[in-house]
Specification:
Elements lengths: L14 H8 L4 H46 L3 H7 L19 E4 L5 E4 L7 H8 L12
Pfam families: Histone_HNS (PF00816), Histone_HNS_N (PF22470)
GO molecular function: bent DNA binding; DNA-binding transcription repressor activity; minor groove of adenine-thymine-rich DNA binding; protein dimerization activity; structural constituent of chromatin; transcription cis-regulatory region binding
Keywords: Cytoplasm, DNA-binding
Length: about 140
């Protein structure tokens, strides 16, 4: 009899949800999952120990250098004041300016232009809605 593969087992901290999910899973599969999960946990403990060890070594070095500085009469402020730091500014991105693409006449009779970005000017919008003209009719030739 073939076992249907489970879609996923939800990782949760709620014991009731875990029990309801594994109710139909065979114990042999649960044992395999347990050994794999235990292996992952052990690996995580080892990596955490190594990270703590590296941090402790780093802190020892920092303490060593601080004591050397204090014994030589060097203050941290002396280091900061004596050095120059480059200004880290993000370069501003310049936007491309789009030239005028459409030309229309406003109610006052003045010729105006529109580049096709942003809100459509009212005279163009009204002419298109009334189906008097199409947008291509306003193109600058």
């Amino acid at each position: 009899m073939a076992i249907k593969p489970q879609k996923e087992i939800l990782l949760t901290n709620n014991l009731r949800k875990i029990r309801s999910q594994v109710r139909k899973v065979p114990t042999s599969l649960l044992d395999q999952l347990l050994t794999k999960f235990q292996q992952v946990v052990n690996e995580r403990h080892e990596s955490d120990k190594q990270a703590q060890k590296a941090l402790a070594e780093h802190n020892k070095k920092v303490e060593k250098y601080l004591t050397m500085m204090h014994s030589d009469g060097v203050n941290i402020n002396d280091l900061v004041i004596g050095s120059t730091f480059p200004a880290f500014k993000k370069p501003r991105r310049t936007r491309k300016t789009h030239g005028p693409k459409y030309q229309y006449q406003n109610p006052a009779g003045e010729l105006k232009t529109w580049n096709g970005q942003g809100r459509m000017p009212k005279p163009i919008r009204v002419a298109i809605e009334k189906k008097q003209k199409m947008l291509n009719d306003f193109l600058i030739k």
